[in-house]
Amino acid sequence: MELITRAPKGTVDLVPGVSEKWKLVEEVFESEAELNGFAEVRTPVFEHTELFLRGVGDTTDVVEKQMYTFEDKGGRSVTLRPEGTAGAARAMLENGLYNGGYPVKLYYNTSCYRYEKPQAGRLRELHQFGVEMFGTAEPIADAQVIALALSAFKRLGLQDVGLQLNSIGCPACRKEYHKALKEYFTSRKDELCDTCLSRLDRNPMRILDCKSPVCQEIAAAAPKITDYLCEDCRAHFERVQEYLTALGVEFTIDPALVRGLDYYTRTVFEFPSKSLGFALGGGGRYDGLVEELGGKPTPGLGFGLGLDRIMMALDAQNVEFPQPVRCELYLAALGAEALKKAFLMVDELHRCGVPAECDLCGRGLKAQMKYADKLGAGYTMVLGDNELQEGKAELKNMKTGEKRKISIGEDFIDAYLTASTAQDDLSV
Ligand code: HAM
């Protein structure tokens, strides 16, 4: 029985009280993206496995160890998306979004699935807010994407987010780098873990983000990509830094930052949370991805932010959220006629945008008032035979206790809005 009453390992429920906070945070990211001209894309939760093998790379941890891959009933191999970039690039191509002119700017707010060992900040169902921009290789675009995330962090009141920056070059300069890495790691071959040994020939850069402590120690002394950048990549990286500096953005350059996905080229970045000790998000350029997926050569870039980790960071910093108003006015009713009247009034209130409730559980008057209290209703009103006859009822301000008789006839909404505003003014 225990199994069906518990959510699967590495997943969480977002229940009322928490989900409202998520919504507010998501709105900040979405509105910041929209300010920058990004529009939402929603892609399927599963894709052909091949998309991630080619897009993310078959020597990455994500593809080698973490994907939820299965055969569907038609015998096709499908995978729950482990990240949002490959699906967004596919959707951009499939829907011809480039016909609207470059750059194509997309954002998403989505769940991703990675079979990882669950721990603080590491889930199997994680949530990402991401943006992807296609069709520009200009360094100004890199700066805009990075600045967008930082503005949203600032609007949320997140204090301790850093920016780490690096360039991992283009395939041309990376050829030399791969050679140097291979030479270095071959000299320490006997100490590498089995996965890294298998990566030595295929993709030595992936050894740099192996989680095994021994491999990490070996990787720390490995040659750095920054020493192998070609002229164009070096100039590109310098201009990204110039634009960021012009915006007043502080950053540190981390020559060891390579990111764990294969599609990256040139600029890569992460947003570490200094207090939590892990990255709240990361991203970079992927100038070869669209071509890899069968499209025309189209540069691109973006980021993915871990919403689960961002919520943790906001909690750790005690960032305050406004209390959600679940019920502004509770209409308690005594008797069937009064309940029907309350029901119709509640419906009218909803159409005017006022969160209002009446009894849905067959409660007596006392229990209704208790429930109104539990809901935190700002106002209550009791309707009974007398009130129906008179066409008026007492509106009670639950905070101050002040009461005011108002019409419950056709002009009820106006009467309520006037009285509640007046009382709010008094109680300030
Ligand atoms: P990523 O670094 O793999 O990049 O993930 C981005 C962020 O998602 C991480 O920094 C972290 O905050 C969060 N995250 C990743 N795995 C987990 C997990 N298991 N549990 C909780 N949070 C997690 C990407 O996914 C790229 N698609 C980002 C990108 C977009 N690059 C270019 N465009």
From TrEMBL:
Catalytic activity: tRNA(His) + L-histidine + ATP = L-histidyl-tRNA(His) + AMP + diphosphate + H(+)
Pfam families according to UniProt: HGTP_anticodon, tRNA-synt_His
Keyword line: Aminoacyl-tRNA synthetase, ATP-binding, Cytoplasm, Ligase, Nucleotide-binding, Protein biosynthesis
PANTHER family, per database record: HISTIDINE--TRNA LIGASE, MITOCHONDRIAL-RELATED (PTHR43707:SF1), HISTIDYL-TRNA SYNTHETASE (PTHR43707)
HAMAP family for this protein: His_tRNA_synth (MF_00127)
Subunit structure: Homodimer.
Protein name as it appears in the record: Histidine--tRNA ligase
Taxonomic source organism: Neglectibacter timonensis
Encoding gene (name): hisS
